[in-house]
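Page 37, top half.
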Amino acid sequence: MEERSFLTGAATAAHQVEGNNTHCDFWVMEHLKHSEYVEPSGDAVDHYNRYSEDIRLLAEAGLNAYRFSIEWARIEPEFGKYDEKEIEHYRNVISTCKENGVKPIVTLHHFSSPAWLISKGGWTDPFVISEFAKYAGYVTEKLGDALEYICTINEANMGFQLHKVMADIKNSSKKEGDVQVGVELDMKKILLSMIEQGFAFRRNPLKVSTFLRPRSKEQERIVLQAHKAAKKAIKDHNPNIKVGLTMSLFDYQPTPEGKKNAETLWNEDFGMYLPYIQDDDFLGVQNYSRKVVDEKGAREPASCARLTQMGYEDYPSSIGNVVKKVSKSFKGELIVTENGLSTSDDERRCEFIREAYQSVLSARAEGVNVIGYMYWSLLDNFEWQAGYSKTFGLIAVDRMTQKRYPKQSLTVLGDLAQK
């Protein structure tokens, strides 16, 4: 294969790394008395001010792509009022990527939203469709000349995954690893926080609709319609930009008795979304683990299985299996936009990366149109409601000094990219 035509890089999300994202919904929720977040994001890892150093470290390691998100709450901190200074900030981030030989892959929405959006209805109200499209159009008008790939929405299928988990919350077997994001599963804490969110956003607590809230299948259609409207707005400004979204997908491995259940789970995670994305230019595939499925459904990992800090089974080849599965029905380009390991053992992370990366290259060798692999994450960062205790990064950060400490895993991924 043409080695450098294959994109190898790392990913971040604005709220998790930039710091002081004060106009967003998560900032509001982090500071409630009964917050679901174990700690506030605060300065995060100050990527907002240190992006040049971080991109340089990525490039010097041998990586040639960086997936990052533009923060809607910075661009439009108040309803209908755009901040030109923040657009210029992200133009500088994009320029820094290019100066370092790094292809920028931009995500317009990575979980966090402007607080005003939630007060006006959030992600289950059709209002979001037009507003997200306006934001997407504005960003493309200002920055689209410098971009080739735009992901509209990160993990557009997360709402229904959360819906399934929360519907079974009384089942003591439900654990954090049942969904690929750091979330709180203590119902008492959730309920107290919901009440306070109602006051904070001036909404009925049951109708506070941030992105990381359970959504029904019908409500997921609003998210997908927002994606389609944003895609049109992007293409209207620059038809050459390749547009897609990203999805959270497990590698479902059925036992002989579990094939039907595995098909159902895959349809809930992917199949029911396909009609809305099948004409997209690319799809971002995000996977962290497998689930073995029997006649009762998805099993918990075996007692002897190696687990990550997030509670997933440590199973690196799952990403290769997932891209092959997706390629059977989605015919556009595939980019692994997230895949990684939460562990304090960087030697194990190195092993994980070698195996996961090879599984993707093997799928490519078999004819799968996968054009890139973005490790999650470039930096140890704020893992949503789980705070700073989960370490995925290729670069460690001392949050007292914000000093960066590249790990051996960064070198390993960079070496793989050069082969």
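Page 37, bottom half:
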Amino acid sequence: MSEAVKGLISIEQVGICFGGSDNLVEAVSDISMRVQPGEFISIIGPSGCGKSTLLNAVAGFIQPTVGSIGVDGVPVVGPGADRGMVFQQYSLFPWLSVRKNVEFGLKMKGMPRSQRETTARTLLGLAGLLAFENHYPDQLSGGMKQRVGIVRALATSPQVLLMDEPFGALDAQTRVIMQQILTNIWQRFRISVIFITHDIDEAIFLSDRIFVMTARPGRIKQEVVVPLPRPRTPAMEGHPAYMSLKSRLRELIREESLKAMGGELHDGGLSGFGIEVGPEGVAELV
């Protein structure tokens, strides 16, 4: 397959269940979506809707119960070098320097030392971290650690970058800066990205398209195209199209969050406290 079409992600009628027959949990159900080469998509939805479960299936960490997932026409049957992963938790090796962390995957692939050092230093330079190449993870801030994680994921030249709430543990200001850094890096490499987030502003700022998931079992409730031009800037938050899209996404999430809470309230048996859940998933006094 030519370079121009690498990074095509196909998710076809995927369902994922956990547990046995007596305690079966259906995490996601009948999800189909395609991510085009070089496209940045985000997945948002209420807590527990299966966003991370779906991402882990694309990564190859778990297998779908039904359906199929493929990258560039090749079925995903386990983790692979064609997919880089960035977690919310900082997954760096604490005993390795920043540069050695970035080099790790290249070393596993058998790349000569001089070549992998050059590659690592180039990537660290793009992320503004070259001055810290000999530092260790515990000497870095949270944002810097996550930048190293992104660089390490990109070092092996994957076709796909999978990101599971990578900025969720950062403070608001650092998070905004990280979003801009990620956008700059993505625009340079143009690899396909699936990004999981709870933050609607983050999804709008980063994405070409946003997929909204339902309450569990997670399905695709709606696919939304982000109409804002690139490059994106924080000033766009005041644009009418931005505000309209944010309001629309917030309402979609609110609907599904109420459904999720309604199911939990029913399951929790709150009727003994004089509380029932109405038809819209809203708790009511009775």
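Margin note: Residues 94 and 137 are 6 Å apart (CA to CA).
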